[in-house]
Amino acid sequence: MKLKRIFKVLFSDWPAKVLSLSIALLLTLFFNLTRLEQRTINIPLTVSLNEELTPSSQYPTMVKVVLRGERDLIYSIREDEISASLDLSEYKNEGVYRAPIRLQKRGNALIADPLEIHPEPSDIAIGLEKRVAKSVPVTPSFKGFLESGFELANFDIVPPEVTISGPAGLIAKTTEISTDTIELSGKKADFSASVRLLKKDSLLTLEGRDLVVFSATVNRSRDVKNFINLPIYIRGLDPDLTLAEILPTGNLRMYIAEELVENLKTSEMLSADLSGYTKAGTYTVDVKVSVPEEAVVETYEPQTLTIKLQATDQPAEPGAGL
Description:
By secondary structure, this protein is of the alpha+beta class. It folds into three domains: 33-129, RNA Polymerase Alpha Subunit, Chain A, domain 2 (Beta Complex); 130-220, YbbR-like domain (RNA Polymerase Alpha Subunit, Chain A, domain 2, Beta Complex), CATH 2.170.120.40; 223-311, RNA Polymerase Alpha Subunit, Chain A, domain 2, CATH 2.170.120.
């Protein structure tokens, strides 16, 4: 009798009781949902590739990950306790592929419960192309100007070339690698520095090194100077010989610092060496230039000279002499 009474009580008005129970469950679920919060973090994306192929299109290096759970739990998870990866190592042919982003949990992220976690987006489309490598020259990139009155005479980069690798199409178009900015401002002496190399495209890879050594030679700046009607100085003339004819004058054009000009011996800048001639006659000799080491000769004339020599006791022609 008691059992029948119990069943009668349980199943009387059962639709209302089921409805009440359902409402209670929904309220409990809703309450639990309202207790969950959402947090968004950005973490690095690691891409796994085989040795034959490499990405030919840009892809995100960071991925957004959404965490949903109780506030204390989701904010106790550090960003380095979740990693995101894209595995492309299985693809052997060139083309465009869509691969899912995989998440891996550790630390607090592994024990947090409840925890919902998913990346946005869930997958990424990426192009793959054959990987190739080649050597390209390194070119410097300058900023600023040397101290007034100085100039960059020359420079050296070690090594002068580096090896790059990447998708075949991009490598074919890449003809050089530039350095990071080299500051020239205020420099007035030789200097050297280790400089980082810059990639024009993130799809390029620098093989073996990302630094080069830049060395520069700094000189005082030089202006272009023209010297005209310069006498040609005769060296080593045998005392038993003399010039039978008057010599022409010469011209010289060179780059030289202004402060060096005032100390120049213009009478000896052009010269001819006659020490090898001991007999009278007509000879063609080279004209030599004598200027400070810091100067750079652009051109001069004459570069050769026809000289007529005669014995000292022979009367010289009118106007002849040194």
